[in-house]
Q: What sequence folds into this?
């Protein structure tokens, strides 16, 4: 991209960083170019990795999700400090609102860098994941801020069946359940409270619209949603000593006992289905299912499918 075009593209990006959502007409008027040119710049920024979203309709526009911020290596530490010092001096002399906005943005970004971990009282939760150390903590941060400030949240969501939707929700709670983060929010399109998996939110942003907090009753929270429609099974395992720590952390130490011959046994009542099957497979040869027999048979069949897959005899499904 030529230097002049790069400058315009960067000015559009910083404008969106400040406003988060602008119409093509507003940007065209500000930069004295056509709306068609604005859309070309938006396309080039998207190709460069900036997650811009075009929202159609009366309240639409070109949107930069609140989960986006400049990459951590956009500035070196010295460059960052020099930029902050220069903007501070400029604002103190001229009281320029643009300089104040840019300064606030830089400081807010540095503050956000340290929010991958949440500390509450004596509990610390590291919200970053192995595969994505940036987007997931940012989604949590945006959701947490929206809850705190009672701001409506616009989300781009994909459910387990792959169906995408754009919704306006009123966020009330963040829920951590069985190693998964959920957002509990009033969904305006469904006219009721819904749970949204944070990991399935593609993007999220606020536009300044606020809401009045609704009453949330503890007994109404769907904290047993993993078990609501699941068939329960009485699981009985024989556990190898090497796998004991993993089984203790999964089922709890109280679920472990010694058999008559000194073998390690584990018993628990768990929801049947693919989640249980996958968990047992992850333990490899460290456990053997004693009961129910149907589960042991399902594990054997799945192991044979995996063996055939790596033997080149079976295509991926």
A:
């Amino acid at each position: 991209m030529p230097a002049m075009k790069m400058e315009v593209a960067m000015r559009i990006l910083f404008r969106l960083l400040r406003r988060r959502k602008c119409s093509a007409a507003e940007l065209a008027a500000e930069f004295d170019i056509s709306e068609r040119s604005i859309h070309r710049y938006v396309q080039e920024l998207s190709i460069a990795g900036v997650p811009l979203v075009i929202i159609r309709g009366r309240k639409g526009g070109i949107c930069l999700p609140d989960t986006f911020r400049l990459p951590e290596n956009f500035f070196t530490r010295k460059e960052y400090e020099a930029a902050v010092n220069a903007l501070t001096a400029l604002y103190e002399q001229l009281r320029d609102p643009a300089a104040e906005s840019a300064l606030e943005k830089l400081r807010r970004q540095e503050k956000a860098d340290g929010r991958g971990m949440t500390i509450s009282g004596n509990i610390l939760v590291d919200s970053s994941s192995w595969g994505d150390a940036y987007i997931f903590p940012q989604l949590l941060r945006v959701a947490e801020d929206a809850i705190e400030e009672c701001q409506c949240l616009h989300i781009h969501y994909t459910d387990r069946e792959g169906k995408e939707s754009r919704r306006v929700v009123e966020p009330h709670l963040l829920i951590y359940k069985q190693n998964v983060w959920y957002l509990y929010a009033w969904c305006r399109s469904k006219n009721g409270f819904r749970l949204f998996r944070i990991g399935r939110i593609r993007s999220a942003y606020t536009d300044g619209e606020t809401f009045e907090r609704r009453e949330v009753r503890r007994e109404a929270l769907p904290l047993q949603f993993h078990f609501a429609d699941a068939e329960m099974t009485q699981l009985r395992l024989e556990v190898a000593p090497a796998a004991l720590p993993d089984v203790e952390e999964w089922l709890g130490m109280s679920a472990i006992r010694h058999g008559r011959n000194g073998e390690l046994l584990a018993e628990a009542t768990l929801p049947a289905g693919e989640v249980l099957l996958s968990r047992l497979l992850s333990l490899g040869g460290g456990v053997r299912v004693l009961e129910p027999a149907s589960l042991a048979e399902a594990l054997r069949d799945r192991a044979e499918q995996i063996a055939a897959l790596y033997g080149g005899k079976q295509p991926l499904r």
About this structure: The mean pLDDT is 79. The first strand starts at residue 21 and ends at 22. The two ends are 42 Å apart (CA to CA). DSSP finds nine helices and 14 strands in the chain.
